[in-house]
Specification:
This protein has about 900 residues and is an alpha+beta fold. The protein is about 20% helix and about 40% strand.
Length: about 900
Amino acid sequence: MKREIFLGGMILILFLIIYSLSFATSESQKVSIESSIYQDAKINGSVEVVIKIKNDSLGERNNLIKKIGEKKISFSNDELIYAEVNSLDLDELQSNPSIESLSPERVFHLDLQDSVPLINASVSQKIIFEGLNLTGQGETVCIIDSGVNYTHSDLGGCYGNNSVSSNCTIIGGYDFINGDFDPMDTLGHGTHVSGIVAASGGIMGVSPGVKIVSLKVCNTAEDCGESYIQNAINWCINNATKFNITVISMSLGSDTLYSNYCNDQFLANPINNAITNNISVVVATGNDYNATAIASPGCIQNVTRAGSTTKADVISDFSNGWGLGLLLAPGSLINSTWINGAYQLNSGTSMATPHISAAIAILNQYLKQNNRIMTPLEINSVLNSSGKTIYDSRNGYNFSRIDVYSALNSIDIESPNVTLVSPTNNLASTNQTQNFTCNSTDLFLNNVTLKLWNSTELYYNETKNVSGQSNSSEFNLTPLPFEDYSWNCFSSDMKGNVGSNSQNYSLTISEYILALFPSNNTYTNSNKTFTCNSSYNSNEQLSNITFSFYNSTNDLVYNLTENISGSSNSTNFNRNFTYEGNYTWDCSFYTNASTKVDSGNYTLYYDLTSPNLTLTSPENSTSLTGTQTIEFDYNVTDNLGINNCSFILNNLTVETNSTLTSEENSFSRSISPGIYNWSINCTDNAGNFNQSETRFLTVNSPPVVSSGGGGGGSSSSSVKPVVNPQDIIQGYPILIKEHYSQNFKLSNSDSHMVFVNKIINDTAEITIRSEPITFVLKVNESKDLNLTSPDYYDLNVRLNNINNGIINLTIKEVHISKRVFHLFNETNSTTDSPETNQENSMKTSLEEIYFSAILTFLGLGFILVHFLRNRNSKKNNVKNKKSQNKKKKEKFNN
């Protein structure tokens, strides 16, 4: 009996050891999941999570997506999957060896304070540069928020529906909450922010000339999903070229505050990608009344952080701050557009953010009109260094409140534009009193200086202080001695840039003047009227004037004298030409005191012959293949000289050359596939015109290479069988049809192939092999791929256009590092950290499982012992019965 009980106990202990070991092993392989995630899934039926894939399991990403179900996934990239899952999904994901971590998707909230009165003014709207007001014209701000009420009259009253040619202020956008292209606001926050940027009507935004793309990522509970924000940032990047997006504005943030950079946030990757693509990302710092910490994603290093000031230019008490730098803008008591079509007063760093975004749009407009580019970090520095210094007494730091006008001035490298108005160039006058007038324009004029030189030195120098953007300055000089002069005006702006007229003007002050028209060495193909202007500054009076005309051999062929009077006179003489060639002519006058003044000879060329023009190459009806640079050659001659020749392509003048030095000339032009007509026209110095014959040229699209498994094309010698790395380092264009392919090779790798699976409207499904990577691109979209290393992207594929079933792709070799970011777990200072909670949760779960296992095996052990005891009892009973029967039998026999 004792032996059997001992045996049962040993079996029980063995079972417990085996189960504990197997349980411990299985638990060590499972992904740790916070108990709160399971609780949320049970309560709500599902929970939104972020799944991080192990670096050595990235190839399992597509399989993992299929297991989860694509409908449950809101966003994914190479390392992260954002999904909405239930409890059963969590059980499967917990045991998946490809997953490194699974955490709750963080929710960001709109920073919206109570309503208060408005600050709404910007001096930059009054500045005109290159004929345009500096109001952000031509720029687009991508606002990631709760959408926008685009029917508001101050926001244009219409929706552009993602049409580049739309005249609506809200040119386009997307609703990530409802999954459609209608980002109508149902909260009001995004409408208020949009009005601060671009309102024009009852109120005026900071940059009323700007266009807005509205991306709706926040619901009516003011919650903004992180996956939606990632998608929205990528949407802005992918459509930046199409809409000219240069700023992303995000008036949102997390509940958790950070005192240092948070560059391992999941949003850091798309934000840094935007900044790499020269798109500024402006983010609110939060309204937590905290002087030393700000909300995410404002803590990501490269963003432009927005804090709030009041109308009194002090830090708003609600505005978060820290020591690592931020920009300030008005955020207290801002009146702006509201969801109901009227206006509302709101406060918060949410209101400061669009002020800064709009300011950046204005700076970008000015830079582009100057053909200049500044990076987001450079613009950040400009706004910081040019703004007004505001002291934050809460933390002892100085911050800069933006000043758009000063920022524009600080980046101004353009010299003022100066034009000389009077006296006109080459004026000869007997009037010794002259009024010098010059006009100057610039963003920030400071002064204008007149300089007048005589034949030996600087005769006069005067400076006048001016201001504004345009000025007309006058300088009155008297008496000017009879002499030859030259003069110019010099204008300086507030930045110290100095501009002047392109050339000095000449002025002659003389006792007598005899000026002739047309000017010396004139070419003409028509008869002319000759004008002689005469003046005399003395007591003597004009008596008569004589016009003399000579042929090419200096023979006098015409002479006429007219009586005149007074101190000045203008007399016209008409002359018809009889043959082509060069002529000379002059005028002379006498006074009543017999004083004679002679002009000297002027030369004129009379020409009726058009230029002689012939085309040399390419020959008529030439047929070429593939985009290439073509030399269009021609010969031109003329008896008196060529003034200019123009290249005509498809009946349009595309280039003119005014510096011909020989008979043989050419125009060089890059020609893409198409059918063209071309010709040359030339004009000589006398205005005679001639146009060449018209020739035709056909440039065919290069044939594409057939894929191995489909298509009907064949390779051609004009198409490279393999595009080499040196060809695609700057981007290699490919024209390719559906079911066709092109082989290519990257540096230090084997050959790969791009294959077009199908084309639907403006979308193409593309596969890159050797290891198949299939993806979909729309026109003007691109994708970075890693073909040789999981650590960086090495190929960029861009879909340029689709025309008649042929897609235009560009493949480009790149080397873009792939950052891996980790989410900061949001904590509360009054509770244990998530890691501690997770450990405690796991301990509790293990204790419960162990306790249940012990009870189970104790029960099994009890049953086993009971079974053994019953078995022994039965054996004893049988034995006793046999013994009793034996005794009865022996007794019976006896």
